[in-house]
Specification:
The protein is 28% helix and 13% strand. The longest helix has 19 residues.
């Protein structure tokens, strides 16, 4: 997504300097690793066609896209589905978290969900897709205002400025009372998350398919009790 001096989520890779006069030669092991990576991208483009659901396009690091691993996606989808069932099928807004949307539609297709994303490849989802640029946090269809009792947000950048704008989007989407918020972002945002959205970290820690160099946390504005590891009080915070 567009951003100035934003701190991007970082994949754990090492950058090497290239010789401008000679193309680097890959070792046999590196060539095999590259081939495996390319094959995985092709599979990502095909999506998860089995068992229904929707296709998930290959992640694009240039857009700060990093998909959740299967365990994380399933845990989140199960929690959102449980919340929706207790709210008579309340609609769910997935803000910049397409992995959750894909798994939710696969596991609980009857739960109405809307994906807000900058990447227009997700236009394949038809009416379930809304173009979203966090730099314009409230430029959304009027019908979406206060229409979502459940909002899950995964800001693309680890900066307070980005979180502030996403917080405005959350306030636009969720009704003032009785809404459930799940926020996925870096642990470095813990204080800002509490300040801006009144959410607290859970014991459950999200993981991504590609290992990242940032510690991620799941925050909620409600006490999940014995689910998601409950609220994490290991830092001595009084709940």
């Amino acid at each position: 997504m567009a951003g100035g001096e934003e701190e991007r989520v970082r994949p754990e890779v090492e950058e090497e300097e290239e010789d401008n006069d000679e193309r680097p030669q890959l070792s046999a092991a590196a060539a095999m690793a590259l081939q495996e990576f390319l094959e995985q991208r092709v599979e990502g483009e095909k999506g998860e066609g089995d068992g229904g659901g929707v296709e998930l396009v290959a992640e694009d690091w240039r857009l700060s896209q990093f998909w959740y691993d299967e365990r994380t996606a399933r845990e989140l989808a199960a929690e959102v589905s449980r919340l929706a069932s207790g709210l008579d099928g309340a609609a769910v807004a997935c803000v910049a978290c397409p992995t959750l949307y894909a798994y939710l539609k696969k596991s609980s297709p009857d739960v109405p969900a809307q994906l807000l994303e900058y990447d227009e490849r997700f236009g394949q989802y038809g009416g379930d897709f809304t173009f979203y640029d966090y730099n314009q946090p409230e430029e959304l269809p009027p019908a979406m205002k206060h229409a979502y009792r459940i909002v899950v947000a995964d800001p693309p950048y680890l900066s307070k400025e980005c979180l502030e704008k996403v917080a405005k989007t959350v306030s636009f989407l969720a009704p003032p009372e009785g809404s459930f918020l799940l926020l996925l972002t870096g642990e470095v945002q813990t204080d800002h998350a509490l300040e801006l959205l009144n959410v607290r970290p859970c014991g459950f820690k999200p993981q991504h398919s590609n290992k990242l160099g940032n510690v991620f946390r799941l925050f909620t504005n409600y006490d999940p009790a014995d689910r998601l590891g409950g609220w994490d009080c290991s830092d001595g915070t009084h709940i």
